[in-house]
Amino acid sequence: MSRGATSTIRRPSNSPWNGVNCHPSLPQKCRLTKSRIKTLLISFSDRNSLINHEFVPVGTTVNAESYEGVLKWLLQRIMVRPHLFKGGQWKLLHNNAHPHTAICMRHFLATSKVTVLEHPPYSPYLAPADFFLFPRLKGVLKGLLFSDIAQFQQRMTTVLRAIPKEAFAGSFQQLYNRC
């Protein structure tokens, strides 16, 4: 074959691979339809409970500036609960997404005296949301239909608040075992 040339394999016209004369009794693969409702959740928890969660407004992109606003709100919530912020023992674990690693975000966290645990790159198995929170939420919400985003967010909030303390403690133990 010469450089730049392509070869074509021709199939017989009655081949089942070209969609013609497919066996009608074989089950058809169902196709999933994309959801009209999409929302982004930002959540923070400790080993006892969900500390804060909020839904990103539709059409908003999470960048360093918006994430800093979320963290300011989180720090206010933590300062109000002294048992969460015991003399700088509180630590933040977030993944390596661009808003989390931006220079302005690192500066904000340093000036706020927040210790950040380094998250290894390309390690989603170390993110508690991936192995604990998302599977739990998917299991509860699977098959439910929602008419609008507000209804979905309300149901999601109910599910998040219903997660028992032991489950959060278990997720931190899983994280420890994965490291």
Automatic annotation (TrEMBL):
Give the signal peptide, or none: none
List the InterPro entries hit by this protein, alphabetically: RNaseH_sf, Transposase-MT_Hybrid
Q: Which domain of life is it from?
A: Eukaryota
**Record region (Disordered):** 1-20
One of the record's GO molecular function terms: nucleic acid binding
Q: Where is the composition biased (Polar residues)?
A: 1-18
Segments crossing the lipid bilayer: none
What is the protein name stated in its UniProt record? Mariner Mos1 transposase
The source organism is: Araneus ventricosus (Orbweaver spider)
